[in-house]
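User: Predict the structure for this protein chain, please.
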Amino acid sequence: MTPPLSRLQTRLPETLPLTEALAADIARILRSDLGVPQDQAQSGDWFRALSLALRARVLEPWLAAEAASMGKKRVAYLSMEFLMGRLLSDSALNLGLLESAVEALASFGVSLEEVVEAEPDAALGNGGLGRLAACFLDSLATMGVPGTGYGLRYEHGLFAQGWQDGRQVETPETWLQAPAPWLLIRPEARITVGFGGYVAADEDGARNWHPSEQIEARAHDMPVTGWEGKWVTTLRLWEARAVNGFDLPRFSSGDHIGAATQEEQARALTRVLYPDDSTDGGKELRLKQEYLLVAASLADIVARHLHEGQGIETLADFWAIQMNDTHPALAVPELMRVLIDDHGMGFDPAWEITQATLSYTNHTLMPEALERWSTWSMGRILPRHMELIEAIDAQTARKAAKSGIVPEHTRIVHHDQVHMGNLAFLGAHKVNGVSALHTDLMRETVFADLDRRHPNRIVNQTNGITPRRWIALANPGLAMLLTEVAGAGWQADLEKITALESYLDDAVMLERLGAVKRSAKERFSNWLGAQGIPVDPTALFDVQIKRIHEYKRQLLNILEVVALWQGLKDGTIKEAAPRVRIFGGKAAPGYFMAKEIIALIHDVARVVNADPATRGQLQVVYPANYNVSMAQMLIPAADLSEQISTAGTEASGTGNMKFALNGALTIGTLDGANVEIREHVGAENFFLFGMTTPEAQATLATSGHAARAIAASPRLQSVIEAIKGGAFGAHGAVMDALTYHDPYACCSDFDSYFTAQRAVDRAYADPSAWQRMAGHNIARSGYFSSDRTIRGYMADIWGVRAQI
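Assistant: Here is the predicted structure, written as structure tokens:
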């Protein structure tokens, strides 16, 4: 179920002719293009017909944007993930055709809500990294910035999540089972990408790479429409196919399966997002995926640059290439290879152009998340790149040595590994953090020595989210209210919503805000009920939706659930607000502890939800397969946003911004963008708990910190004893990790978290005060628009200009 889309925009004077034209196009496409009689059309047929009718209206501004970009400096955003969500309703909204779509379908007796549900979420990402990339494309399009997103066209994405006895099971995501109307195949854009082989010098001494394996990258383009349809940007996705896909002689000889081996091996590169890299085969596949993205994208960029009549030496003047995390860090040696090997450039000028063209967004401070590849794997799969990486490492170390000793950890190659974070840092002219705290920590920890060597290279660009999808589309009731108090245009100028603040002493406005929230909660409750999960929409909706990872501390959340349940049963907690504790998110298939935490959450839910003593007071739910479409229903319904990672571990977060913008109050630590959210919305409108980053670092560096925290907390002792005693099944591995190791200080932050949750109970008991706090969160969240973030990138990193 989606929001009531017909209420998202007011009727325009030209609605009727637009509706008639759109209805005529839908009927024609259904009959002539899809070959489906109207009386036999299913929701998927209507979805494809409407999508194609809207896509036709995108083509003109799309082509116009491409023409207007000629000769201008462009952005290329390289990312392994683009978590786009559904495009039908988003495109209709941004084109100003949403109401026309509602009415056009209604003329056939069809509901737009039903049609939207037929669109599968594009399986192109997993979490915040990919959703950030999607928001950035939306902002680039809205602001008229020449640019292209580059990613991979995964056939099955990460995985579709399901449950079996409370444990996660993974099946393929089948988003491409039916033709995807928002993807256009570009047969002219085919790039040959090599792997393996050897490098040899020619008679002039030039190094030449002779790959032993080649695949073909085929382009599929997805239009991303900006607000009011004035500009359309492109997401170009590469599909891996064999250069010679079918071996006819082999087939004719009787080897019918082997004849297609090359094709299957090539397609494996873009089958799955983030293949399990716990095996050598998985590591090799992931490295090849990353090179495929980089090699195809850079070849496309250079070809477009040269086609426009520019010389290769001016590449940095016309292209700004952003590496989103370390996954595209191979862009550094690949661009060097292109400049040196393909265009005969010397090392020094090639390095100057490479640095001037590339920039790097860092998303993590955790060493295990900064990619490293063995020199053996890199040399075997990409031998020329290994040579260039060693040359870059030697050259940068020589220059650094003139100023003193070069610490080993700042080298690109050390301990027989290629450190991709260092490679990306040294190969970029700017390196940005994604929140103020994260940027400071980059300078103080992981890149401290490199920052001293290259001052002013690190800059901050705090993340943001698009208000088009995350209010205008996801929360129609709030969108209407904001238009009333802030006027038209807030969708492209989110700071306008500060106007709401002047109304927050008005009891009528507070009631209207409450009504918006109740409507969203009822909508989400109905969606859950349709899945057999009945919930009370009048309860406090307490939500944690994130990738399942120990540092995000879903474990701390479920420990507090058990403590709350125990307190409700024994009467030590008397005035708690009725709660529905909602979890959502996937664990990587090979991440044992994350999957064990999921199982613990389910087992606690099984016991708590069946307990008659606490029925109506506490419920735990965990709907499967969290994605963008679920988030669009759940975030507007949330009363409380759980942002509880260990201080110093979350780079930024963007879910925290979406919740605040939709009127959920945050319970959180001083981590990532929580710090800036609290500064903007006011400390009095934020439930703070937990250690600061220095305190957390000091605690984790102290032996036995978990045991001491447990000994000091009778309540935590009771929770751990209950779990260890089998009250919720067998979860010894999770409890052993918690009591003897606790790598993210759940035990040390537990009492503070529990106390903050009781402050939530007290605040929620006063509806007017709660709505006032929620209103301040909404009104003061304009800063967190991705449009503001992109303006920062344009000015401080890319040097590009908007064209509208």
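The domain at 72-85+121-462+790-798 is CATH 3.40.50.2000 (Rossmann fold).
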